[in-house]
Amino acid sequence: MNLSVHGIIDTCYASHSSPAGHKPTIVRMELREQALRVLCVSDPTQKVEAMQAMWLARADLDLDTQGTLTSAQATGPLPGRPALPRLVAPKEVPQRSPFTLAGRAALVHAVCHIEFNAINLALDALWRFAGMPPDYYRDWLLVAQEEA
Questions:
Q1: N or C: which end of the chain has fewer CB within 10 A?
Q2: pLDDT, tens digit, 9 for 90 and up, residues 29-87
């Protein structure tokens, strides 16, 4: 991960995915604005890396509790999700016993979805609401980091 004292990871890619081997670059940014950018990242590995970089840089980030951000400022879809596997309704997923290999794989896959969505929910709460006390934003940042 390419971190510096000047800021944190910039997860804004023109195509919303990075070329193979490309590491995001560093920019100086406000905490809530950065949370919105990380929320837009669709690749799970890149989202976790961006979240970890944001956490490491948290002491150096500005916090504007009064600034209004809108979804129009998003760098991609909200929240960012991978194109594959295709998202389907739970009733469309075949039932599997957790006592089989396929069932255990499905269970692990479901837990991964839960964790990925937990990161998204925490980042969404962090960027979306202006006017909250600073601890509100720090707490949601901690939740996003723990889930990442």
A1: N
A2: 799 999 999 999 999 999 999 999 999 999 889 999 998 888 888 888 889 988 888 88
Q: Which H or E run includes 9?
A: strand 8-10
Q: Output the CA–CA distances (angstroms, integers) from residue 81 to 29, 73, 78, 85, in the order listed.
A: 23, 17, 8, 10
Residues facing residue 26 across a β-bridge: 9
Q: How far apart are CA 33 and CA 103, in angstroms?
A: 40
So where are the chain's domains?
Answer: 8-147
At 83, list the tokens: 């194109």
69 phi, psi to nearest 5 deg = -110, 150
Alpha carbons 94 and 77: distance in angstroms, whole number: 28
Structure tokens at 142: 């901690």
Cα separation, 132 vs 138, in Å, equals 11
First to last CA, the chain: 15
Note whether 55 and 26 are within 8 A (CB).
Answer: no
Whether residue 85 is preceded by a cis peptide bond, meaning omega within 30 degrees of 0, is yes
8 Å CB contact between 49 and 43: no
